[in-house]
Amino acid sequence: MDALAGLLDGPRAREAFLLRMVVTPPWSVRVEDEAPLSLMCLTEGSAWIVPEGGDPVRLHPGDLAIARGPAPYTIADRPDTPPQVLAGPGGTCHTLRGEPLDQAMRMGVRTWGNDPNGSTVLHIGTYQVQSEVSGRLLDALPPLVHIPAGTWTCPLLPFLAEEMEREEPGQSVMLDRTLDLLLVAALRSWFARPEAHAPAWYVALGDPVVGRALRLMQDDPAHPWTVASLAGACGVSRAQLARRFHELAGEPPMTHLTRWRLDLAADLLRTTNATIDTVARKVGYSGSFALSAAFKRVRGISPQEHRTGIALPTRQRPPSAPRARAISTP
């Protein structure tokens, strides 16, 4: 499996929230929608994104930003403009006093703002629930990714902007798939940069020994792998593989395998109707009991609770993941 393909194999928008925002300064929107991932592309004017506890990032026309939730953030004409609108889950919006603004600021198909002739135009696409985005991808991202115009090209941006203003049969499906492709294209460009601080296991894929062990586990998670069998397949001793794997990937081989299997299981539980027993066997467990035991030990909830969203805890970033921070590509 291609490492990047494995990481990006997961975005599946389902009736994503898409919005064309047209505004005139001063304006400021506090976003508390708890969405796992949002893409923002500025097409006209200028804007600032202020992540919770992070440094403000300025957007210029053609820039793309990707915000990883559920932490809130603010979009504004200036970093110090006080929020006037509070955006909540499901595309709801209201004043800071709780007065609804959904209808008052609506200006047409998927268009919203304070001035139909506003100087700033921002196109936003939001994945509304975590099951639409692979947890492995979310773990690999900082709170904010900034990709300036000129550092990458993608014909999907103008296409998505045009399609957002149309209302035809099947439009939501077309927009969902375009959003998925745009996200993959943007992240492919970003992950190719050294400043992206990709997860340790992703970088370790370039090592001839550890990379082969990782690919073996990724390509066939259901195989009964052991450190000894992986070492034999990689042509090194068990001790050599264990030491080198921990140095480069940041965790022991079997810990990585468990995490990989559970991440795959988590995605399958949320995106398919397969039974827990079927999912368990597909990712390398003997049955539902074994998967449930591992799921509860590592994630703190049962597979069924994960599938239904009951008692879902805040997702923890794995120990091998980089420290979260805003990233702006040069």
Question: Briefly, what is this?
Answer:
With 330 residues, the protein is of the alpha+beta class. Helix content is 37%, strand content 18%. It has a 7-stranded mixed sheet, covered by helices on one side. Strands 5-4-7-2-8-9 form a 6-stranded mixed sheet, with no helix packed on it.
Question: How would you describe this protein?
Answer:
The protein is α+β, with helices and mostly antiparallel strands. Helix content is 37%, strand content 18%. The protein has 12 helices and 13 strands. Strands 10-1-11-3-6-12-13 form a 7-stranded mixed β-sheet, with helices on one face. A 6-stranded mixed β-sheet has the order 5-4-7-2-8-9, with no helix packed on it. The protein is elongated. 38% of the residues are buried.
Strand content: 15-25%
The total count of helices amounts to 12
Query: Describe the biggest sheet?
Result: 7 strands, mixed
Biggest sheet strand order reads 10-1-11-3-6-12-13
What is the succession of H and E elements?
HEEEEEEEEEEEHEHHHHHHHHHHE
Helix content: 25-40%
Using only C-alpha atoms, the radius of gyration works out to 21 Å
**End-to-end distance:** 30 Å
Overall SS class: alpha+beta
Secondary-structure topology with pairs:
Elements lengths: L2 H6 L8 E7 L4 E4 L5 E8 L2 E5 L5 E3 L4 E5 L4 E4 L8 E3 L5 E2 L16 E3 L6 E8 L7 H6 L3 E4 L8 H9 L6 H21 L8 H5 L5 H10 L7 H8 L3 H12 L3 H19 L4 H8 L4 H12 L3 H6 L18 E2 L2
Parallel strand pairs: 1-10, 2-8, 12-13
Antiparallel strand pairs: 1-11, 2-7, 3-6, 3-11, 4-5, 4-7, 6-12, 8-9
Helix pairs in contact: 3-4, 6-7, 7-8, 9-10, 10-11
